[in-house]
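re: ur question from yesterday

yeah so i grabbed the chain u mentioned. its 201 aa long if i counted rite. heres the sequnce exactly as i have it in my notes:
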Amino acid sequence: MTRESTHSLPLKPNDVQILASHEADRILAWQDVYKRSEQFPPVLRAAILVDSFFQFGIFAHLPWFGRQLCSLYVGMSVQPDKVFPLNIGLQVVSRLRYNARDPRTRLIAFLHAFERYSVFQSKEHERLLIAKSGAGRHLLSRRKNSKLSKLLEFAISRPVFCAFSAAAFLEITPVGARDLIRDLGLRETTGRGRDCLWSLT
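ran it thru and got these structure tokens back, copy pasting raw so excuse formatting
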């Protein structure tokens, strides 16, 4: 039997139980770090949590899970009901830094990722304000209760959307939604016809 065929065999029930047991032990260890880090500021605590999540090897086959979990924690601590996308900040941080052997180097790398996302968020907010101001010029000659204003708020709340989702939000037909989208001067991002996606910027 070749090595490739050996690796393709499904896990036996006993193997699954052993893996589940090891995973549970790692999660308990991480929960202990979670409790002992309560005295730290939210962002520093999140850096400690995401680093320990990786070091314990929790859900190693799902590397995005720990980042999303800790991003959610920061959002709940700093901005309720918001998710803090750590992945965006990590895009500009060297993988060698947040995978380094030295714990201090790893923590600084994660803190740098949070800082870079804060800069990105500020620029994104400014960009949306400029785009909203430009699109708002189309509303000057419309009634205050025009659906265009609702469509503008809808477009601001998501990166891209289709005519069907806009129609459902505005409670009109997809054809009517497309007409309003064109009146508002929104940008066509991808797709054609029924599959077209739109965005504010």
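noticed a couple things. The first helix runs from residue 3 to 7. also The two ends are 56 Å apart (CA to CA).
anyway ttyl
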